[in-house]
Every structure is written in C-alpha cells, then in structure tokens.
Amino acid sequence: MFRYFLFASLLVALFPAHAIVNLESLHIGLPEEGVSGSLQLGINGAEGNSRTTRASFGSRVQQRHQKTTRFVALNTDYGNSFGVEDKNKSFLHIRQIEQISQSLAWEAYTQAERNKFARLNFRGLAGGGARFTLGAHTPDKAIFFGLGGFYSREVLDSDGSETEDTDGEFYRLNTYFVFKRKLASGTVFMSTSYFQPSIEDAKDFRFLEDASLLFKFTENTQFRITLNLFHDNRPAERVKKTDVDYSTSFVYRF
Length: 254
What we know:
Blueprint: H1 2-14, E1 34-46, E2 52-65, E3 68-81, E4 84-99, E5 104-115, E6 120-133, E7 141-156, E8 167-184, E9 187-197, E10 205-216, E11 221-232, E12 242-253
Antiparallel strand pairs: 1-2, 1-12, 2-3, 3-4, 4-5, 5-6, 6-7, 7-8, 8-9, 9-10, 10-11, 11-12
C-alpha cells in the first residue's frame, strides 16, 4: 500500500497538471466567469498472483472572460505489470475559444503528446476551426459539432527498418461530435467522438470515442467511469490499429 501511495505522490510532484481524457469540460454548461479547473487521479493495483500498477493524473485550468474561454490541459497515464512497464503516455493541450453567437464559436489550439507503446516519441500539432451548438443549450443537455483542420509533425521511435519514415508532416481534417446529458440528480453522461482523415488520403484516418459517466459526491468532487477507444487506420509498423482503455478515477473541481 505504501508503494502505491509513494507512486501517486511522485506523479503529483512530477506532473502538476490536469486529467481530462478528452478536452470537454466535466460539466454541461459554460465554465464559470474567471478562473476554474479540475484535478483527476486514478490509481489501482494488485499483488500476489497478479502484480500490476495503474495510475493516471492530470489537471485542467481554464479562464473565461465574457465571450473568450482559454484552457490548458495536461494528462499522463502509466502502467506496470509484473515489473514490466506496459503503458506510458502523456499530452499537453492549449486552446482558445471565441464565442461569435449563441450557436457559433471559433477555436484555435496547439498540442504536444507522446505514447511510448505506440512508438510515438513526439507529436506536435496546431489547428483550429468552427464549433457549432446544436439545438437548445440547457442546464441538463448540450450538443456540439466541430469542423476544422490541423497540421502535425510526428517523430516515431525507430525500429531499424530502412523502409519506414520515422519523421513525417501531416495535414488532417478534424471533426467532432459532443453529447452531454444529465441523467439523474448528480449523474452526467458525456460522449465525445473525433474523426480525423488525412487531407491527402481519405483511407488514412483516425477515430476516437471517449464516453464517461460522472457521479456527484459533493459540490466539488465526482467519481468518473471512462471508456476510451482509439483507432488508427494507418498505424506505424508493429503497432495495432485499435486501442481500448477503461478506467475509474476521482475528480476534484475548483
């Protein structure tokens, strides 16, 4: 038990930031005026016939002033089984959203990420687009659709292959659909779906589905269950096309 506590403490010290798997807020409405944010921590493990450690930690800090919303999000996930590391990935995301009207907003963003077990040493991207609010935005339900594009540069971990290019530049369309619904008192369902085809080749696409259930404990704390599916139709060599993750975590909002 002490080993898990020590590991969690080290994570907090090394990554003083955020834990939202997708980039949507953990509540249905707009962020509060001023500065707000959230922290999320998930950790579990086993000893005996199974020896595993799983941990994720992150934070999100956002600032809203009238029609402008800015936020910074940082997330990291780590896994170890029988003393062998089997998960190590992280990302940093910065975004600004300008609300033009009740149903239309413009957004610009930049992101850096790495995923050791997808052979991704570095991916940096910058882009933007339009964000549409579909239907009536109420305290109990929100639906958004995003349409835009981004430029990215990727550096892969070399496996010694002479045929694979480990340093590439890409242009992709970015579409996403967000659905949030309050199911019962203190319970919220969220689904975010991304589809990102290459501008040059429609068969080179990526798809992400992130679904969560949030259960309210107190005014500032929630328990979260998340299912994350990522599919890359043209992955790097020796990397599987589809990854599925499911996790539980505690969320503190401030």
